[in-house]
Amino acid sequence: MHIHRLEKIWLIFGISMLGLFLTVVGVGAFALGMEPPGDHRHTVDPEKLSTTAPFDKPGLKQIGDQEYEANLVAFAFGYSPDQMEIPLGAKVHFQITSQDVVHGFQVNGTNINMMVVPGEVNRLTYTFTKPGEYLVLCNEYCGAAHEVMMMKIVVK
Ligand code: CUA
Question: Which residues form the signal peptide (predicted)?
Answer without folding.
Answer: none
